[in-house]
Amino acid sequence: MATESSESEEEGKITGGNQHLVVEDDLREMGKKAAWTVSSCKTGNGVSSLRDDNLETYWQSDGAQPHLVNIQFQKKVKLQLVVLYVDFKLDESYTPSKISIRAGDGFHNLKEIKTVELVKPTGWVYLSLSGNDPRETFVNTFMLQIAVLSNHLNGRDTHVRQIKVYGPRPNPIPHQPFQFTSREFITYSTVR
Amino acid sequence: MEALLSNYVEKSLNQYMLRNAVFLCERLLAEFPSEVNLQLLARCYLAKNQPHSAYYILKGMEMAQSRYLFAIACLEMDLFSEAEAVLLPIEHLCSEVPNGAAVQYLLGIIYRDTARMKRSAEHFRKALSIDPLFWAAYEELCMLGEAEEAAVYFGDAAIPCVQEHYLGNTSSCLLIGGTNHSFGSSQRFVFEDLSLSHLQQKEQKKPRDISQNNHGGPILTGAVEQITNSCGNTSSLSTPSPVPTQIRGSLFFDSGLRRSARLATPMRSLNTSKGSENKERSFHASTKLNSETCSSTAHQGKLLETYEVAVSEFEATSSLSSTADVKSIQHEIVNTKLRNFIADAATIKSGISDTFKLLRILGEGYRHLCMFRCKEALIVYQKLSSKQYNTSWVLSQVGKAYFELVDYLNADYAFSLAHQISPYSVEEMDIYSTVLYHLKEEMKLKYLAQELILVDRFAPQTWCAIGNCYSLQKDHETALKSFQRAVQLDSRFAYAHTLSGHEYVIMEDYSLGAECYQKSLNVDPRQYKSWYGLGVIYLHKEKFEFAEHHFRQAYQINPFSSVIMFYLGTTLEALKRSGEALEMVEKAIVMDNKNPLPKYSKAKLLVTLGKLNEALEILEELKECTPRESSIYSLMGEIYKQHKKYDKAMLHFGLALDLKPSLVDVAKIKAAIGKLVIPDEIEDNL
């Protein structure tokens, strides 16, 4: 997992960004099972542009800051990574600068779990949700909120081209305490 | 003209010159509309893979043979109710209609596809009792799980039945005994050089006489009269005219119509073998007489030709209906090599008994495999001669047996041999692709998929292989599309549905996965893999009673699978029925000692029952067999933690982490280690 963020949980500055999205095999995209909403948008640049796997289309907000992207799941899920595609070269003053990620059960009890400052990002930006403690590798939550607090050059509205949310793969074999790693075990573990 | 055309159509059909056959048959039908010609045209359409045309022209026809062909067209178009409606009335004529076994088989197929399994099995059994060489019926019975031992059907008791078919019995066959064969063959021998082009030059006179003579009588006697008539009117022979074609037409037509009646009632003149011999001799005599008396005339050749026409028409008539027995006899007569062979009853008997011996072995093997008694199946197949064993069908069956035994290496070997021997065959290649998937042989699987595409792009097995290939590369969306493609190509290919279900479950789409499994079970209720799949879905959803039900169904169908037993054990453990779970897991260990999972389950169960030391013993054994399995060490670490042996726990957790478990497990183990540290600290502080 390539990331240029610093290890600290508080303010971290990220510059640059990858052109290619590379994620560990162990993680899988969880966004399909969630309901995505945004605080505001311009017609034609709505929330669907965030999830269409098309980097040409983007979400454009249309209101006061902070601009919010809300991701709500039907049950608690373990999340580890948030990836955004933002590009200063294309979006200039619309490029997000300060981003805060909050998690909780719903709108009423969201708590900030990470803030980050982007400095002229140019591609995929990886935001890990893990804490230092191994017990905090994942965030187990109903809802995630990505808040754009400010933009580059003090722009009002923001452009985000794509957002992906990753969590760990569950055990394909149900009701086992640990996942199997060896070939012998895996061969015998399913009927196909 | 009618006989000429219909003969020519037959010839074209035999030579697969289908455009010729269809065109000329359509002309034939236009010129001489009759149900027999309609049947011939239907056969042409069916050969050309146009069942809808055959369906259209035969709709409403009443003759047994028409109904049979109509049913075949309906089945090609999946019109089960119509096929059933049309076959049922002739069902009780089965013993008289020569393709009776086929009718029973078709009814069996219809009932199977409309989910009436019991009746389906009955019909397959009837098919076998009528015609013991009907392998397809036995195969279907095995797949329904209803087959008795192969020896019951392919046993010595059935030999006389087959003999009868070949030698013909008095009431159901026109030809009787070996004498007829020699009779027919000698005639053939005489007329070998004559070509059908002479057909036009037949005597035109006595058309009414002939047709009158022919009413209710067999064509042979008619021909005799024809010849005697013609003999008496040699002068009239000189002028060939178009009328002769009409004569032949009516002869032909009558014989066609009368065929079923003829079949049902004993022949007037050829009642018993003795009677036939006499008649034949007189027949011989009369023809010889005829030829002698007319030899002086220049028309002798024509007379012989006439006779030849009569015989060939007779052949044409009988070959119209696809009777396995009578037609085959006719053809065998034509084939001079077989002439002597068939004529000897003893040789027939030994031939039949050899065939039965072969079918017995194959049948037993197939039956065992369908009931998942794989080891027995393998033993039975070993009894085959190496000629028969080294064929793609047998080797594929062997491969399937190893596959069900979870012995994928041997399965790979058997299947690859099968594929080498018959690269054009796609049968069971879907199972082979699954074997390669299990073995994670990406290159081999890709290669197989590519080869299969080149062989047959429209076979569901090809798309199953392609899907497995993508699934192995973790591209589950494309894998799913491939499996759906296979389903589109053949919605009755149960395994494609099952594989689609598996893909949905991997992608965690449980509702669509369950749907696919259900579809698979609708087609084939004995797909234990689909029952298993449903069980897994319920396990994921934590609905343990449902899971148990489904796993038990799978277990009933395949009681020899240690994997199914393992899952059943897991479910029982979740239901807190540890005793039963332990039993089930023990059974699994006995069934397949190489399967490490039931042993792992057993260790887990022993932990919950508090028998920590025994659990550790088992895990130590497992460690020897599979030293790189992280979950063994994790579990041992947990056990030592419970035992308060913190240093050992620490060691094992460390080993577990070294073996690179999944992210979730890494977090779990690290958390567990964290908890270990604290008791140490407390101890230190004390």
TrEMBL record, chain A:
Superkingdom: Eukaryota
UniProt keyword Cell cycle present: yes
InterPro entries: APC10/Doc1 (IPR016901), APC_su10/DOC_dom (IPR004939), Galactose-bd-like_sf (IPR008979)
A Pfam family the protein falls into: ANAPC10
Keywords, sorted A to Z: Cell cycle, Cell division, Mitosis, Ubl conjugation pathway
CDD domains: APC10
One GO term describing the cellular component: anaphase-promoting complex
PROSITE patterns the record matches: DOC
Domain DOC residues, every copy: 6-192
Gene3D superfamilies linked to this entry: Galactose-binding domain-like
GO annotation terms (biological process): anaphase-promoting complex-dependent catabolic process; cell division; protein K11-linked ubiquitination
Family: Belongs to the APC10 family.
Function: Component of the anaphase promoting complex/cyclosome (APC/C), a cell cycle-regulated E3 ubiquitin-protein ligase complex that controls progression through mitosis and the G1 phase of the cell cycle.
PANTHER family: ANAPHASE-PROMOTING COMPLEX 10, ANAPHASE-PROMOTING COMPLEX SUBUNIT 10
Name of the molecule in the record: Anaphase-promoting complex subunit 10
Lineage: Eukaryota, Viridiplantae, Streptophyta, Embryophyta, Tracheophyta
TrEMBL record, chain B:
TPR repeat feature ranges: 101-134, 460-493, 494-527, 528-561, 630-663
InterPro entries in the record: TPR-like_helical_dom_sf, TPR_rpt
Region (Disordered) residue spans: 264-289
Any single GO BP term: metaphase/anaphase transition of mitotic cell cycle
One Pfam family hit: TPR_1
Subcellular location: Nucleus
Keywords assigned: Cell cycle, Cell division, Mitosis, Nucleus, Repeat, TPR repeat
GO annotation, cellular component aspect: anaphase-promoting complex; cytoplasm
Cross-referenced PANTHER family: CELL DIVISION CYCLE 16,23,27, CELL DIVISION CYCLE PROTEIN 27 HOMOLOG B-LIKE
Family (UniProt): Belongs to the APC3/CDC27 family.
Name of the featured protein: HOBBIT
